[in-house]
Amino acid sequence: MSDDEILRSLHALREGDLPVHGGRTMAYVYDAGLDGVDELAARAHAAYAGVNGLDMTAFPSVVHLENEVVGRAAALLGGNAATAGTFTSGGTESCLLAVLTARNHARRTRGVHRPELVLPVTAHAAFHKAADLFGLEAVTVGVDPQTFRVRPEDVAAAITDRTVLVVCSVPSYAHGVADPVAGVAAAAAARGVLCHVDACIGGWYLGHLRLARNAPPVPEFDLSVPGVTSLSVDLHKYGYTPKGASVLLLRDAELRRHGWFAHRSWPGYPVVNPTLQGTRSAGPLAAAWAVLRRIGTDGYTELSARVHAATRRLADGVGAVDGLRVLADPDASLVAVASDDPAVDPFVVADEMRLRGWYLQPQPAFAGSPANLHMTVTAAVTGRIDRLLAELADAVRRARAAGPPAVDPALIEAAAGLDPDALGPEEAALALRLAGVGEDGGLPERSAPVLAVLQALPPRLAERLLPEVVGRMYRPGRP
Known about the structure:
about 45% helix; PyrdxlP-dep_Trfase; GrpII_AminoAcid_Decarb; lyase; transaminase activity; PyrdxlP-dep_de-COase
């Protein structure tokens, strides 16, 4: 294929994807809406695409770039001269490393060999992934049913001699609210336990928002809070860098070393891995460095102020739409919208919005949190709030007329008796067919019926079936 043919094929494939610019995709992507930023990032990435961060002695420029990026994050988020950090591929890797570091630290300094991880039920799934990968028991703590914030006294009650790390979110992804970091960190410190703040979404945004003129109150959350020992912040969110850019900050280099892997006991070269990756392209690091330089502190502060104002307008406007309510007053730039009318199903509203070019992320009911729609407000959304609210009101009217999706009670009753661990391929295939998932992994144009079934299933059964859905989508060698 020629270069032009290859690029035309890629562009044709992209036509079926959600748009990454323009502010109509309100999850997964972050758009600054600034001219030239993407082009600069692409050129910086290309300049470093072949540079391998595996060996920093062979490519010392990688160390220079990482020191500057991590230093910028530390200066913004309460760091000091002792603060250490690592550039990672994203929020999940930053959270994984925080848990791994805490596990190893507790094993080596406290002799903990059956480690526990204490976290709110609202904490990101990345921490459960970390517990699964690194052999920790995840101990979940309920949250206040009105505010969806964890209570420090509940965290304190859950800490045991086996606890190696306590987690809090700023904000939680599902509801956009900040956990009370000072109280949680104090509870952890009182027991000699490390405390991690997941500020992957909120760190860069809130850190700059508090620098704005007439800044609104911003909750305490960073490394300056006593007892906070690590913090994760993504640059490919409100830093508006290309994907693959996050930072894990730790209180000092001594703590950081517990998360690094070093190996000399083989015939090859000495290995030191600061991240979960071995080989890692320096392209995302260079792109992040370039965008941080391009936008600068003043630029990020102005973007954060615009996002804050737009978030408030959105939350207030949603409250005026008949049939909708905001689940919790947002502390950051995430808004969760539920229904206060049984005739209006949030999943049907999401379908109606998507058919008209908007993506609002459906979130099934769980642990006292009702079914709702997640909306991430980025700088590119700020000029579209009125249009979004008008479209949302129209979608609610159509959803009310359509009614909620019907779920067969007999199906749910039968599913409740299934053992997820004993579910064979044939039973899984049958369950997926009943949920409306095709043999080829294809989903119906409207996802509300599938989501309604998923929501009604026991969580462990849903977790058994979800890989089956995704597995059907990946068929190597097929179109």
